[in-house]
Amino acid sequence: MSAAAFISRVRHAVDTPLLRWLMLPAICAAYIQGGLVKALDFNGAMAEMTHFGLQPAALFAGLVVVLELGASVLILTGFYRWLGALALAGFTLAATLMANRFWEMSPPERFIGMNGFFEHIGLAGALLLVALNDLKEHKDG
Question: What's any one GO cellular component for it (predicted)?
Answer without folding.
Answer: membrane
